[in-house]
Design brief:
The chain is an alpha+beta fold. The chain has five helices and 14 strands. The strands form three sheets. A six-stranded antiparallel beta barrel has the order 3-4-7-6-5-14. Strands 8-9-10-13-12-11 form a six-stranded antiparallel barrel. Strands 1-2 form a two-stranded antiparallel ribbon.
Length: 275
């Protein structure tokens, strides 16, 4: 307390100046209409600026919730999109008398951990078996494919990234329909290779590559990327194609886990055929 009094005593002149300044401003404010209106206008502008700053800060802090809601809305849109439905061959449909039957549904999840600089890369999602996520389900992002679920616990899922040689995804050229496999051997997080496309197929730089579908992992037509280069090696029957991936695998955000609603039926039939 003694130190406080000493400090106030040392700045007594400054405090006296500030006190007289406040008194003079009050007298000026009360005795002159023009100055009063100017003071009110200035205070309103200052208060408005402060409120604007506060609104910007609160808007920024709420972006996490906004992104979550947008991801859920996008998942709902994907579930309703016609690409997740297939035509019903019979005269009757058992679901609301529709002429189409839903084949896929998507589950929104957030990437809580990921790698992109290793020889084999993985992601961790904040959704697991409680949300319906299980192994061998495809994962797509806002701009393209991301990977395939390897394992799932009740609350989390481990995903093999497309930046890993452990998975090969069936893809095709949108322009010609020729198909091959997406295989990561470029050691570049922005690119991947497409293998097993024969040399007789016409491939041009800029061609769009998309998923082929039918493997129970990804629906057909999901964007993969665009052809960046095409080379033909002597003695090989296939093109060497490098694709620039449409999904930026170095970022983290919301993704969509794809559930093939008819996979069990198809797998059962294929197993019976293989016996």
């Amino acid at each position: 307390m003694r130190d406080l009094f000493r400090f106030l005593y040392r700045i007594r002149s400054t405090l006296m100046f500030l006190g007289w300044l406040i008194v003079s401003l009050i007298l000026l404010y009360n005795g002159n209409e023009h100055h009063r209106s100017q003071a009110i206008s200035s205070s309103n502008a200052m208060v408005g600026t402060i409120f604007s700053w506060r609104k910007e800060i609160t808007d920024y802090t709420s972006l996490k919730e906004v992104n979550r809601r947008l991801a859920e809305e996008n998942a709902d849109f994907r579930n309703r999109h016609i690409s997740t439905y297939t035509p019903v061959e019979g005269l009757f449909a058992r679901i609301q008398d529709s002429v189409r039957q839903q084949e896929y549904r998507v589950i929104t999840a957030k990437v809580v951990n990921s790698t992109w600089h290793k020889p084999k890369n993985h992601l961790t999602l904040n959704k697991g078996t409680k949300a319906g996520v299980h192994g061998d389900m495809g994962v797509i992002g806002p701009n393209g494919i991301v990977g395939v679920v390897r394992d799932a616990s009740p609350g989390f899922a481990s995903v093999i990234s497309v930046l890993s040689p452990d998975i090969k995804t069936s893809v095709q050229l949108r322009r010609t329909g020729h198909f091959g496999l997406l295989y990561w051997n470029t050691n570049d997080p922005l690119t991947s290779s497409v293998i097993d496309i024969a040399k007789h197929a016409r491939v041009a730089v800029g061609d769009t590559v998309e998923t082929r579908g039918g493997d129970g992992t990804f629906p057909a037509g999901v964007l993969v990327g665009v052809v960046e280069s095409v080379e033909d090696q002597p003695g090989s029957n296939y093109h060497d194609i490098v694709v620039r991936l449409s999904e930026d695998m170095t970022r983290s955000g919301f993704v969509y886990v794809v559930d093939d609603l008819r996979r069990a039926e198809r797998d059962t039939l294929q197993k019976a055929h293989d016996r």
